[in-house]
Structure to design on (353 residues):
């Protein structure tokens, strides 16, 4: 399941108010590109600008491990190993273990082996073709095709092992000094960690910045926003949530948070529409139902998760979108220290709190 994250708009004018030119608390930023999204790291300590370059280097490192499309990445190697065990780094093992935890927790509603389905739909590729080809006819896979591919979609086919070949569960403790292997029991199975990878990367970037004594900052990986501390004056950051299908920078709601993760998922970043009649309008997007292979159709346009961990927010934003409004609200309200903002198809904004 490849997930394009919804753009969250930081209201920077509010953030930098009170920071004087040349002050050590003036914001400094670096912008790069990884995992098909713009990466922007901002810190409020101009004396430590060099840490920003290391952050972008870390993004490149993680993409070289986790990308399903980059030949030679560890995930690419697993997908092309014909069912043989592949040696992986601690980071890849930790990310796959986290993905398996959320797949188990969701009882397969989330599934890291949906790549055959996403490849067949090729939502992004079709969007690109439609731009360059007049009267481009979008491809909708048949039920028979999707049914055949779904035979190879099952997160239980992913086996994580230690260096001795012992299978590890989602709750087993990993060590960065140990070796790990991953095997797909079905050679036609394939993984995509897009629904959780950016969250893991954001959490690792924050861990690094904290180790460098950064006390105030913003990590932005597409729709994953991770806040370090508060603004230099001690007040919370203000984060705007993009209006689904709205104009660029059009905000539908805002939240004020410090030292928190804000992650969104929705149907309006990677999509195409077959019938633009408002009364019969189907949006074919990148969040797929693991039971049918079709893009999920429900009462939501987007979900934003507010939590401590970006990897948690990443997984839960997709999960709650798949659940729909009623079940999603019920689920979030059963959790401690996690909140959500739901946007319905009628553009009603419904917070869980």
């Amino acid at each position: 399941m490849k997930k394009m994250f919804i753009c969250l708009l930081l209201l920077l004018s509010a953030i930098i108010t009170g920071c004087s030119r040349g002050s050590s608390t003036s914001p400094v930023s670096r912008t790069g590109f990884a995992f098909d999204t713009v990466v922007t790291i901002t810190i409020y300590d101009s004396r430590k600008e060099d840490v920003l370059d290391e952050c972008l280097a870390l993004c490149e490192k993680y993409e070289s491990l986790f990308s399903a499309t980059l030949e030679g990445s560890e995930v690419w190697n697993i997908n092309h190993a014909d069912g043989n065990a592949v040696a992986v780094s601690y980071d890849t093992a930790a990310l796959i273990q986290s993905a398996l935890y959320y797949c188990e927790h969701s009882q397969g509603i989330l599934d890291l082996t949906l790549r055959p389905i996403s490849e067949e739909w090729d939502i992004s590729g079709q969007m690109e073709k439609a731009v360059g080809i007049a009267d481009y006819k979008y491809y909708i896979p048949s039920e028979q095709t999707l049914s055949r591919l779904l035979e190879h979609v099952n997160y239980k086919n992913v086996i994580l092992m230690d260096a001795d070949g012992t299978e590890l569960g989602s709750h087993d403790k990993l060590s960065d000094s140990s070796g790990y292997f991953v095997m797909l029991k079905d050679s036609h199975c394939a993984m995509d960690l897009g629904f959780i990878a950016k969250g893991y990367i954001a959490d690792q970037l924050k861990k690094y910045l904290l180790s460098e004594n950064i006390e105030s900052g913003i990590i932005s990986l597409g729709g994953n926003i991770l806040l370090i501390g508060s603004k230099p004056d001690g007040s919370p950051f203000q984060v705007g949530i993009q209006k689904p299908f709205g104009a660029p920078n059009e905000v539908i709601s805002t939240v004020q948070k410090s030292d928190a993760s804000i992650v969104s998922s929705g149907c309006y970043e990677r999509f195409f529409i077959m019938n633009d009649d408002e009364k019969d309008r189907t949006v074919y997007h990148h969040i797929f139902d693991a039971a049918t292979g079709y893009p999920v159709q429900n009462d939501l346009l987007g979900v934003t998760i507010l939590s401590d961990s970006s990897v948690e927010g990443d997984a839960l934003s997709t999960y709650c979108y798949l659940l729909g409004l009623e079940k999603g609200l019920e689920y979030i309200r059963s959790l401690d220290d996690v909140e959500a903002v739901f946007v319905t198809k009628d553009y009603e904004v419904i917070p869980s709190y």
User: Anything to note?
Assistant: The chain has two domains: 8-62+201-351, 74-184. Residues 1-8, 10-22 have pLDDT under 50 and may be disordered.
